[in-house]
């Protein structure tokens, strides 16, 4: 709980600064491309990265074994 609260607090400080800067950079007079949705695109990129990390790094549950036979559900001997 404490770690999640710490991460939430840090992101609550950093994200307004980051997204405001991105928005002003892409809507200002010297913008390489005028794109007001740049902060949303950046947020979508962060979300996609988080999903990729979640899918690849979250441990899958171990195969359950039948105690009576000692054989896993996938047929492997235990």
Task: Please give a structural write-up.
This protein has 78 residues and is mainly alpha-helical. The protein has one domain. 59% of the residues lie in helices and 5% in strands. The chain has a two-stranded antiparallel ribbon. Strand 1 and strand 2 form a beta hairpin. The two termini are 37 Å apart. The model has no long low-confidence stretch (mean pLDDT 85).
The sequence of SSEs as H and E is HHEE
Beta content = 5-15%
How would you describe the shape? Answer: elongated
**Radius of gyration over all CA atoms, rounded:** 23 Å
How much helicity do the residues have?
Answer: 55-70%
Total E-strand runs: 2
Kindly state the mean pLDDT as a whole number?
85
Largest sheet: 2 strands, antiparallel
Q: What is the number of helices? A: 2
Task: Give the total of domains.
Answer: 1
- Strand arrangement across the biggest beta sheet: 1-2
Low-confidence stretches: none
Whole-Å distance between the termini? 37 Å
Assembly classification: single chain
> What would you call the structural class?
mainly alpha
